[in-house]
Amino acid sequence: MESRIVVLVSGSGTLLQALIDSSVRDSVVAVGSDLADCQGLVRAQKAGIATFVVEPATFANRSDWNSALQSELVDLRPDVIILAGFMRILGPGVISQFRGQIINTHPALLPFFPGAHGVRDALAAGVVNTGCTLHYVDEGVDTGEIISQRIVPVLDGDDEVSLHERIKIEERDLLVKALELFVATGTFK
Ligand code: GAR
Fold first, then answer.
1. Which of 107, 180, 114, 116 has its CA nearest to residue 149?
2. Does residue 158 line the site of ligand 1, with CB under 6 A?
3. 171 CB within 6 A, ligand 1
4. Residue pair 102/137 in contact by the 8 Å Cβ criterion
5. What pLDDT tens digit does each residue of the chain (189 aa) get?
6. Residue 177: is it exposed, middle or buried by C-beta count within 10 angstroms (0-12/13-18/19+)?
7. Ramachandran bin of 113, using left for φ above 0, alpha for ψ from -120 to 50, beta for the remaining angles
8. Helix (H, G, I), strand (E, B) or coil at 152
């Protein structure tokens, strides 16, 4: 049976673009964002993929925002939800509803350097290798079970932007390969 993939984005959406350019494109049923003005949404629209926006600022509180996001996701009946540069923490309702179906990609070798600044924190720590991690999402911040990782060396003269760009090359490939496997077999391992 055809897989149903929903992708959530907050930023430039180059990971999403890698999915759009891959064989899993036809399984991407919708792209959502917490930001109406988001390049990732433009990429989805150009590809003819349905989009939705659930902006926290338009809700009275975090719990209401989470409920609205959960309701959008339930309507889409996803087999898997990919956080591809989605910079919000999902609430417990969304996580328990879709436990084992939400996957995040993170620009560091978890469990090291979790959070919103994985690249900056790795550079500041002076590591010679960092990388990226694909993992299940649980209630913690980047604490869920790891699916796969890639190592990326830190080069002399790297700054946060140059290092992040090289990490994202690996992230795109890791994500596409994982979803190709999921579409073909229904699992990530
Ligand atoms: C990716 O490096 C992703 O791992 C990161 O945002 C970038 C999105 O790039 N996500 C996080 O840091 C989440 N904590 P993109 O907008 O070009 O696809």
1. 107
2. no
3. yes
4. yes
5. 689 999 999 999 999 999 999 999 999 999 999 999 999 999 999 999 999 999 999 999 999 999 999 999 999 999 999 999 999 999 999 999 999 999 999 999 999 999 999 999 999 999 999 999 999 999 999 999 999 999 999 999 999 999 999 999 999 999 999 999 999 999 998
6. middle
7. left
8. strand
Cα of 2 from ligand 1 centre, angstroms: 27
Indicate whether residue 85 lines ligand 1 (CB < 6 A).
Answer: yes
Specify whether 164 is catalytic. Answer: no
Active-site residue identified among 106, 117, 135, 164? 106
Paired with 146 in beta bridges are: 135
Q: What pTM value is reported for the model?
A: 0.97
Backbone angles phi, psi at 151, to 5 degrees: -90, 140
Q: Ligand 1 pocket: which of 105, 110, 169, 175 to mutate (most atoms <8 Å of CB)?
A: 105
